[in-house]
Design brief:
Blueprint (H helix, E strand, L loop, with lengths): L1 E9 L6 E10 L2 E7 L9 E12 L1 E6 L18 H17 L2 E6 L6 H11 L6 E4 L21 H14 L4 E4 L19 H12 L5 E7 H10 L3 E9 L2 E2 L3 H9 L3 E3 L6 H8 L1 H17 L23 H10 L4 H8 L1 H6 L17 E5 L12 E6 L2 E2 L8 H4 L2
Helix pairs in contact: 1-2, 3-4, 4-5, 7-8, 9-10
The protein binds zinc ion.
InterPro entries: Amidohydro-rel, Metal-dep_hydrolase_composite, Metal_Hydrolase, Metallo-dep_Hydrolase, OTAase-like
Pfam families: Amidohydro_1 (PF01979)
Organism: Nonomuraea purpurea
């Protein structure tokens, strides 16, 4: 048994704060949560953290561990061996957990390497968060991210790719409902790639195995199709048109009334991109996030980390920077923590096992110096990171990639 005491425990249940709290962990599981002394005289190793806040581990609902600023997914595609790429992914997973992320959903890569890494982390061979892997995104021939290997143009082909991904062990399916910005020759962001019926096929195939679907959607029509098809999460949701972001209040109302969560892929590279590529587009995007919040759309945290955007790095250890952008969009610190933990866990289909500090759940938690309800940036002052009860904090350890810049 391990007993952790801290000045404050945020259980992750909305608004629940335990001053002078105590958590007891047995192996990988939480066995008691309450005020100091509530576990009685449970024998075990005591970790006393005065001045600290303990909260559920953070969740990144959208990463690509196979990419970072050193890899141009377009020009270098196919040039990096699977062996080398897997090492890169392992390093990006280590960085991710070093930022306090204890669960992450990898929404697209090639070669089923995300499954290899996921299993290696669970075995203790690699350091990282629990991973939920989408494997190859389903996309049209030559469509957005086609080079990841998931091309399918009609219903039978969609079912085949979906079933192959699930057979390989995917935890969820990813579908590219609209085009995007990063694949030369593919449809642009504002063009849908699939019909509502075709997206529904993906949802059906996933649901048959108890899994959910994450759908990449920038275009208005694609966003609408995703809500109608009942995907678990809509990624980006930028309301993109040939003339830039055009927020649509009616579509937002439809989102708020539907069952899908929205992961607007808000990340810490936001300010740098705004500086380099101009205010107008980025401010319109942030205004869209704020408007969705006001409309009651259920937003969750996910950074799209890995992909460098317009030459600007969006590294996997920059997670908290993305949460600060949510705060700019009008969320209180308590709400930001909620969308980074309990809501993200529910959206990713793992709300039964993680996302809150409750008896029976996995001991996925972090402790930070200070109080993130007062200062969100305190989430950077990690003193403890537990993934299924295993301590993985590595503060002060410099990696090769960090030291060579
Ligand atoms: Zn992505």
């Amino acid at each position: 048994m391990r007993i952790i005491r801290a000045a404050k425990v945020l259980t992750g249940r909305p608004g629940e704060v335990i001053p002078d709290g105590e958590i007891v962990i047995d192996g990988a599981s939480i066995v008691s949560v309450g005020p100091r002394g509530s576990a009685g005289d449970t024998p075990g190793e005591l970790l006393d953290l005065p001045g600290c806040t303990v909260l559920p581990g953070l969740i990144d609902a959208h990463v690509h561990l196979g990419f970072d600023a050193a890899v141009d997914p377009i020009t270098r595609r196919g040039q990096e061996s699977d062996h080398h790429l897997l090492l890169r992914m392992a390093e990006n997973a280590r960085k991710l957990v070093s930022a306090g992320v204890t669960t992450a959903r990898d929404l697209g890569g090639r070669g089923f390497l995300d499954l290899v890494l996921r299993d290696a982390i669970e075995e203790g061979l690699a350091v990282g968060p629990h991973l939920l892997a989408a494997t190859r995104p389903i996309t049209i021939t030559g469509g957005h991210c086609w080079y990841m290997g998931g091309e399918a143009d009609d219903e039978p082909a969609i079912r085949r790719v979906a079933r192959e991904n699930l057979r390989a062990g995917a935890d969820c399916l990813k579908v590219m409902a609209s085009g995007g910005q990063m694949t030369p020759g593919a449809p642009p962001s504002w063009v849908p790639q699939y019909t509502t019926e075709q997206i529904r096929v993906v949802v059906e195939e996933a649901a048959d195995r108890g899994k959910g679907v994450a759908a990449h959607a920038h275009a208005h029509a694609a966003i609408r199709s995703c809500v109608e098809a009942g995907v678990a999460t809509i990624e980006h949701c930028t309301f993109f048109t040939p003339r830039g972001h055009r927020y649509d209040p009616e579509l937002a109302d439809l989102l708020a009334a539907g069952d899908s969560y929205v992961c607007p892929t808000v990340h810490g590279a936001f300010w740098r991109i705004r500086e380099v590529h101009g205010q107008e587009m980025l401010d319109a995007w942030l205004a869209g996030v704020a408007a969705m919040r006001e409309a009651g759309v259920r937003l969750i945290a996910g950074t799209d980390a890995g992909f460098a955007i317009g030459g600007i790095a969006n590294p996997t250890d920059g997670y908290v920077g993305g949460l600060e952008v949510f705060a700019m969009a009008g969320y209180s610190n308590a709400q930001v923590i909620e969308l980074a933990t309990v809501l993200a866990a529910d959206a990713c289909g793992v709300g039964e096992v993680t996302g809150t500090l409750e008896v029976g759940k996995r001991a996925d938690l972090i402790a930070v110096a200070g109080d993130p309800l007062q200062r969100l940036s305190d989430l950077r002052d990690l003193v403890l990171v537990l993934v299924s009860g295993r301590s993985v904090g590595q503060s002060g350890v410099d990696t090769v990639t960090a030291s060579v810049g």
